[in-house]
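Next comes the chain:
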Amino acid sequence: MSTTISFMQDFSLFAAIKLALVIAVSGGLLVLFQPLLRGCLRAAVLVVKPKLSKEERLQRRQMQDALLLKRMLNRSDCDPSHAAELRAMASRF
């Protein structure tokens, strides 16, 4: 409690104005350079986790589709005609 009181005694109007001005200038600079900062952040993310090529995305999608069909085939509540249709679809991959 005594540190709060001593801080309030040392705090002047000039210091409050200076603090408000620093906060306003910092906020203004952040707003002004927001596109640049956003671009730098995206570049940093791409360095850590690069995007997949079109071929890699296609292969991943096909693999997920094939695994989904395989899971559907392996379900026990699947009737035989439905299973045959799923096998025909899976053979296309």
In short: The chain has two domains: 1-51, 52-93.
